[in-house]
Every structure is written in C-alpha cells, then in structure tokens.
Amino acid sequence: MPLSEPPDAKPAAPRAESLIEYPCQFPIKVMGTKVEGLVHAITTITLQFDPNFDASTIELRESKGGKYLGVTVTVNATSREQLDELYRTLSTHPMVKVVL
Question: Are 26 and 75 in contact (CB under 8 A)?
Fold first, then answer.
C-alpha cells in the first residue's frame, strides 16, 4: 500500500518576501573566540560577497572576560541570496561561533 499525505496536509509555505529593500547597508555580527586571525578571516569572507566592503568600518567588542570577540561588519546587501550565502559561509568557518 503506497504512502500518501494525510488529507489535512498543507502545502509548504512559499518563501516569505523579504522586508529588506535592496541594496542597503546591512550589519552582521560575528562572534568567535578571541584568537589571532579571526578578524582577518571574517574580513576575507566578507570581501568575497561585497568586493567594495570597507574594512575600516569593522566594529570590535570584547566579551566581559576577554575570551570572545564580537566583530560587526556592515555590507552592501544586494539580495537575500547574497546575505544567505554570506551567513552560511561565516557560520561554517572554524573560528566562528555565532553569526547574527
């Protein structure tokens, strides 16, 4: 007997329209353990997705105990796909703990 969807199953919801108007300046917060090379790695990845990214705009914030570093990069966001890929790439970097 073949499996079928229950009669009350709803189709997958379509991807919601973005509330962001592109292009725009979009801040991304990246957190990782405060180690040599973290800021350089984040900058290198960001430049792959926004070649005009200005590294002088990076904001750094240490955790209270100094073990972690928050790095805010503000990119020129041109599409949801660009932001999704940037988040995915940053999130999978071994030095990065969290991307917001």
Answer: yes
User: What is the domain partition of the chain in residue ranges?
Assistant: 34-99
Crossing angle of the two packed helices 38-49 and 80-91, in degrees rounded to 10: 160
Q: Does domain 34-99 have CATH number 1.10.357?
A: no
pTM, whole model, 2 decimals?
0.81
Dump the DSSP string for the chain: ------TTPPPPPPPPPPSSPSSEEEEEEEEEE--TTHHHHHHHHHHHH-TT--GGG-EEEE-TTSSEEEEEEEEEE--HHHHHHHHHHHHTSTTEEEE-
Q: What is the pLDDT of residue 19?
A: 86
